Amino acid sequence: MSLKDLTNALNAIAAKQPAVGTVIENDVFRLNGIPDAKYGVFAWTQGRHRVDLLSGLQTLNFYLYYVDRVDTADKSEIDAQSTGIDVLTNIVRAVVNKFDLDLSGDLVFQPFIQEKAVAGKGFKDDCAGVYVEVGFMTDAYEGCEDEFDN
Questions:
Q1: Do residues 137 and 104 make contact, with C-beta atoms less than 8 angstroms apart?
Q2: Domains in the chain, please, with CATH?
Q3: pTM of the model
Q4: What share of the chain has pLDDT > 90, as a percent?
Q5: Which class for 134: exposed (0-12), middle (13-18), buried (19 or more C-beta within 10 A)?
Q6: How far apart are CA 64 and CA 61, in angstroms?
Q7: For residue range 110-122, what is the model confidence (pLDDT) as tens digits?
């Protein structure tokens, strides 16, 4: 599975999640540039990808985010974080099952709360959610037509 195939799969599967209103690629803070963004937001950024030439396996690493607008006065942050864990788990599970992939490790979620941006840093709204680093393991040579001589 290529990087492009995997990112397309992440986007398509995330868009089908009932709690996801907007999908953002490559930079979670692009959310600030979408005036009509529908929350919850699924976003991903790329991590460091790895190819093991001996085993023929590659690990495509991503940070996956779930972000929701919250009202800090009513303490809805936990609701956003709980939903985020469920949504991201569902997305990862669906990708793994659909494409018969393995993961490079456990899913370890980092919850966050971020109040409105100050001096352009952060989100434009009060937000909360979670993010997780995930490594999808797949055949590094799938889709390669021929080997090339040097």
A1: yes
A2: 3-139 (3.30.70)
A3: 0.89
A4: 73
A5: buried
A6: 10
A7: 999 987 766 566 7
